[in-house]
Amino acid sequence: MSGTFSQIYIQTVFAVKGRENVLDKKWREEVFRYMAGIIKNKGQKSIIVNGVSDHVHVFVGLKPAMSVSDLIRDVKNNSSRFINENKFVKGKFSWQEGHGSFSYSHSQIEDVYNYILNQEEHHKKKTFREEYLKFLKDFNVDYDEKYLFEWIG
Q1: Is residue 153 part of a domain?
Q2: Alpha helices, H only, the chain
């Protein structure tokens, strides 16, 4: 039997432009389902999409035929259009440039899933900035502060 088989687990985090708190609880579940549909339509496996008012966590099983950057670009572009077409926010909605992506082993899937599922509770104790900087530190990612998300407050 010939073929190439793989499954790469990636968590990607990205923020609303200007870190505005505009992802309203009334409609963000609908946007997260829409994002999961984009991921599925790209032939990838959406494990969970969740977030809070200013940022989103996307956890996927990624096939190596597609780059993380291409997938997230498509998720961000299409979800921005969806949010704008549905007039969920006043003015024009968009995501900040960039994202953070972090890989996990199969044995970590449940822990990452639960972490993303419980974003509301998690962010009662830790800010997005604290969370994001911890990811960078834990994954030993070199970074320059000037290229990180725009932080408010």
Answers
A1: no
A2: 25-41, 68-85, 109-117, 119-122, 128-138
